[in-house]
Amino acid sequence: MTRTSVASIRGALVMDAGGGFAPVDRVNVSTGRFSRTSTGGVDLDGSGLWLIPGVYDCHTHLSWNDFHRADRDRRSPAERRALTARALGDTVRGGVVGARDAGGADRALQADVEAGSLLGPRLQISVDMLGPETAGNEDRVRAAVESALDRGAQWIKLIATESIGSPAGAELGSHFSDREFRIAVDLAAARGARVLVHAWGGRAVSAAIDAGVASIEHGIFLTPAQAAQAAAAQLTFVPTLSIYHFVRGLILDGTVPGVPLVRIDEVIIAHRLAVATAHEHGLAIALGSDFATTLQHGTNLTEIGALMRAGLSSAEALTAATRTGAALLGIRDGGVIADDYLADAVLLSSDPTDPATFESPGSVAAVMMGGTLVPLEPGTSPHRTPQQQ
Ligand SMILES: [Zn+2]
């Protein structure tokens, strides 16, 4: 894999730690980090472009290529591997430099990315998803958590509530007991891992917060009291707005049968309200796509636009997508363009304060990770190639 080192980016409008933009003559890169001085490499002409930190997608499924599990299972291992490699490449080329896989990706895949034999974002993995078949028995929960940790999980993923396929109201019950949440959190913590919880609302959200999980995923029916409780506990909320618009399309074209349109429409509206509620209560919000198909991987930045359309300012949405995501993943030197931070950044050809920018894939002109340019797919050309001097 050919990698071009970047020495500097010149003349771009550069995002600051608060999500605002100002012209900067020269952003220097040295040994993989932003720096006061630069060492060997190309100087990129960023004039007329916007430079944002690399994006963190805190909820994705990189090893899933089809929406339905049955379709995934029908593919041969070689085919699945090829599609997963493509998903990893598309994701990083789309501007995502850090990804938390919320179930599916395993240690072997992560090792390939770390070794550079697969192009992909900085990857953290959950391996398994522990749901109703695990819940309801403390020994079973213990064994399942230990097993995932043994196989390299940095995150324990609990599926604590029902989802779109259930009748309205069913998602407010919790698969896991309060004690089971605590068992998962304690076992994970003992081995340096943390817990993320798929919870649409109700008891599961409150119990997960009480148990000390790191993040609540989806949180469609998050209440103001839960948002306040989560903010006080310094949790992070990972809404996944875009995916439900995608699911709405699947319901319309018959791919997801048996779900009334009114159900998904209620979910879409409630989810936007949940984001507004979280925002109002000062709950940290990070970006999550929940993407799980070949067509979706690589379009992760659409979620930035979705966060803006749900009421976050552009500065807030961009900060959620970068600094807050890096913080959730424990990457303290990520998500900000400032000296000594990881030289991860995305050059955009259109204005990032406009949500439409993120709904058009051509907006990503270049992606830099660790101070080198992410190679573009052969045969594709970005909307505008930054000039190399
Ligand atoms: Zn998910």
UniProtKB/TrEMBL annotation:
Top-rank lineage group of the source organism: Bacteria
Domain Amidohydrolase-related intervals: 51-374
Pfam families documented for this protein: Amidohydro_1 (PF01979)
GO function term, MF aspect, one: hydrolase activity, acting on carbon-nitrogen (but not peptide) bonds
UniProt-listed InterPro entries: Amidohydro-rel, Metal-dep_hydrolase_composite, Metal_Hydrolase, Metallo-dep_Hydrolase
PANTHER family: ALPHA-D-RIBOSE 1-METHYLPHOSPHONATE 5-TRIPHOSPHATE DIPHOSPHATASE (PTHR43135)
Descriptive protein name: Amidohydrolase-related domain-containing protein
